[in-house]
Design brief:
Number of helices: 12
Helix content: 40-55%
Radius of gyration: 29 Å
Strand order of the largest sheet: 5-4-10-11
Distance between the termini: 18 Å
Length: about 450
């Protein structure tokens, strides 16, 4: 039953998207000759002509479309008919094509606002993070953290979402490959003091010369911005070590002196040896009091050795103003996360194994409704609607963004593109998208069988 409810919710999103195209076209008086729920692949389950528009339901339900006479080479509508979409101004075409995306954004807001109104609360984007079990002989054990402790801050930064804590630990690993300029300068002074015969910190040292290398001080604690999880995960601050400097760093780690190879200067040695440890300072709430734990360092992989129990906190909605603000915050916050995830997927920072489709969405949605209630299912549906809008805006032929891209290109070059070429390109990309959809479905089914979600 929960899965059926989720399927119905997703079906509503498809209908809303196509309704956006349809009503925008009708407002401008643009002719529409066909509206389909599902894609025209396989048998047609239902077909009925009402007025001059044919409405149909296809067996392949994953999608929908609004068909114009321009899409039908057998259409009896004259090619110079002013009510064809191809004969309308570029701005009208763009509005009609983007109306589906607009409709998805509007329904997402309405869904979120309806949950805010009826539930009286919304997820805040802030999380309560509790300590779970710690791994034996781990750094976490050394801090004195206890199961049930609420993690309040790390390195003085309030932990309002798990990414701040997790990424701070990860970036605090020893020899992370980044060094602050002040740490390099401090180490230069240490090396020059230990080797008074050296007078120039930037000149290559004489081949075979013995250089004493004092242990460098710990680096400053990693401090991420409060809104870190809304930002692209940029590289850590500081000067990045080259491969040669990393090799030198690893050599220095094994001894307190090295022999110059004729290439490195004191500054190079300082840069390499200053890549040390970032301390971690955690404050927890235990029995209604704040406890500062013992300073600790993660292992070489950036792991502290603690399981976390994470739960998102809710904020009450007690006025129309708070309803509007919190609904907007919820949509914007999650849109940024989805765009960030899509960018990472495109550039390869996220594995394609994490790419899921309708099967996974329905399963996840069904489980969400079953375990957390219909309100969480509706919020998930709102996010899916935003995701559909984002995907459809991508400048890929066969998607709305691709059609808009062609219109903009025509406007720039001042003449229409070859319709046959555009049609062939769109067909190729449609088949590629269809193939990708099949692969994703297979991936989802396999993951379902293997109980990965």
């Amino acid at each position: 039953m929960h899965i059926i409810i989720m399927l119905l919710l997703i079906s509503v999103l498809i209908l809303v998207h196509e309704a956006g195209h349809f009503f925008a076209a009708r407002i401008f008086g643009i002719k529409v000759d066909r509206v389909g729920f599902g894609l025209p692949i396989g048998p047609t389950l239902f077909e009925k002509k009402i007025g001059d528009i044919t409405y149909c339901i296809h067996a392949f339900l994953m999608g929908g479309y609004v068909g114009f006479p321009d899409d039908n080479p057998e259409s009896e509508i004259p090619k110079d008919d002013p009510d064809r979409i191809s004969n309308r101004p570029a701005w009208q075409k763009i509005i009609v094509i983007s109306a589906g995306v607009t409709a998805n954004v509007i329904i997402a807001y309405l869904l979120v606002m309806s949950v805010a109104f009826f539930a009286g609360e919304l997820p805040s984007g802030q999380y309560k993070i509790l300590a779970g079990e710690t791994v034996a002989n781990s750094a976490a054990r050394q801090t004195g953290i206890q199961k049930g402790d609420q993690i309040i801050s790390v390195n003085g930064i309030d932990v309002t979402n798990p990414m701040i804590f997790i990424e701070t630990i990860r970036r605090s690993k020893p020899a992370d490959g980044f060094v602050q300029q002040q740490d390099i300068e401090a180490q230069v002074k240490n090396i020059m003091k230990a080797n008074p015969e050296i007078t120039n910190e930037n000149a290559p040292l004489t081949l075979g010369m013995e250089i004493k290398v004092p242990k460098a001080r710990s680096e400053a604690p990693v401090m991420l911005p409060q809104d870190f999880y809304l930002r692209t995960q940029k590289k850590p601050d500081g000067i990045a070590l080259s491969h040669k400097h990393k090799d030198l760093r690893d050599e220095i780690a094994q001894t307190d002196k090295i022999y110059a190879n004729g290439e490195y200067s004191v500054y190079d040695i300082a840069l390499a040896s200053a890549d040390t440890f970032h301390p971690i300072k955690i404050t927890v709430k235990r029995d209604k009091r704040l406890v500062k734990l013992k300073e600790v360092y993660p292992n070489k992989d950036g792991i502290l050795g603690i399981n976390l129990q994470i739960g998102e906190m809710f904020k009450p909605v007690d006025s129309f103003k708070s309803l509007m603000k919190m609904s907007n915050d919820y949509i914007v916050r999650n849109t940024i996360l989805m765009v960030d995830g899509l960018v990472k997927l495109i550039i390869g920072k996220v594995s394609a194994d994490n790419l899921h489709g309708i099967v996974a969405i329905v399963k996840l949605g069904g489980d969400t409704i079953k375990n957390n209630g219909i309100f969480d299912g509706i919020l998930l549906t709102a996010l899916i609607s935003i995701d559909l809008a984002i995907i459809n805006l991508l400048p890929i032929p066969a998607l709305d963004g691709g059609h808009i891209m062609f219109i903009i290109i025509e406007k720039i070059i001042g003449r229409p593109l070859n319709e046959e070429v555009i049609e062939n390109i769109s067909k190729i990309f449609f088949l590629l998208l269809l193939g990708l959809m099949v692969v994703i479905i297979v991936n989802d089914v396999f993951a379902l069988i293997m109980k990965k979600f």
